[in-house]
Amino acid sequence: xxxxxxxxxxxxxxxxxxxxxxxxxxxxxxxxxxxxxxxxxxxxxxxxxxxxxxxxxxxxxxxxxxxxxxxxxxxxxxxxxxxxxxxxxxxxxxxxxxxxxxxxxxxxxxxxxxxxxxxxxxxxxxxxxxxxxxxxxxxxxxxxxxxxxxxxxxxxxxxxxxxxxxxxxxxxxxxxxxxxxxxxxxxxxxxxxxxxxxxxxxxxxxxxxxxxxxxxxxxxxxxxxxxxxxxxxxxxxxxxxxxxxxxxxxxxxxxxxxxxxxxxxxxxxxxxxxxxxxxxxxxxxxxxxxxxxxxxxxxxxxxxxxxxxxxxxxxxxxxxxxxxxxxxxxxxxxxxxxxxxxxxxxxxxxxxxxxxxx
Length: 358
Fold this sequence. Notes:
9 helices; 3 domains; 358 residues; globular; 25% helix
C-alpha cells in the first residue's frame, strides 16, 4: 500500500486522507481530508493560514482521548498538536509554576509534579490526553480540577493568528467547562501554566478516595497518586492494551448539577429515599448527581451491549467500542441512554466528548 499523498507548506508536511480512528482512544471514525503534525507553535499558525487560504475548515486534535470522530471523517484540515516542553520556576508567593506545552502528555506531568513534591494535581493522575486539553474541559477528578491551579493559558487567537496570554480569571472556568469550550473556534491552546505548592498537603476530599486511603495516616502525594491510579484501573479508566473496555473516551456523560429540591424529586422518581441516591455538594443550594448511577437506575447496567458497542463492564459512565463499531452505532446507544434517563428520571444527560465531523 502506498503512503497517503503529501504536500509541503513551509516547514510543515500536510498529508491527505489520513485515518483518524487510530489517533483516538475510541478507535472510531473516518479519515481527515488533510492532516498535519504540528511540532511547534509556528507550525500551528502556518497550518491555520493554509486552511484559511483554501477556505477549508480546520480542527485541533490532541491526544484523542475525549473526541468522537464521525464515520465520514473530517472534510478539512486536522492539526494534531505535537508540541513538547515543560519548565518549572519558583513564584514569588512560594508556589512553583509548571509551564507545559500543549502537546505534553498529561499524566507524565502529574507524575513529575508528584515526584518533585508539588501538590495540586495529584488527584488527576491517570487521565489520558495532553496538557493543552486540560483547561478546555476544566479536567477534574477525585475532588480536584485544573481550574484550582491554572495560573495562565497561552493561546493563539485564530482570527488574528496572534499569541496572547490569558489569566485564569479570563478563562471563565466552570464544571467541565471553560471559555475555550464555549468558544471552540476562537483560540488554540499553546501552553498552560499551573501554580503548584511545594510540600503542600495531599488533597483527600473525595469520599471514594478517602475510603481507599483510610488505612494510610497522613497520605503523601505519592500515596494519593497510587490510590487514584488503582481506583481508575478498577473502572477501566486507565488505558491498558489488554482491557476489553479500552476503546473509550472515559466518561461519556457529565455528572448533572441540579437544585437540591430537584435532586429529591429525582430520587423519588428512582424509587429510593433521598439519602440513598449519590449526591455531592456543588455550590449554594445545588448538588451534583452521579450520571453512572442514573444510567443504571434507568435500566442500563454495566456490560449492556448493542451489537459492537456497549457500556463498560467496569463503569456505567463509559461507552465502549467493542471492536468493529461505527460512530453511528455509538451515538445511537448514547441517545437511547439519554432518552431513558430523561423519561424515567427527569434528568437530561449532556455528552462530554468533543465531536469531530458530522
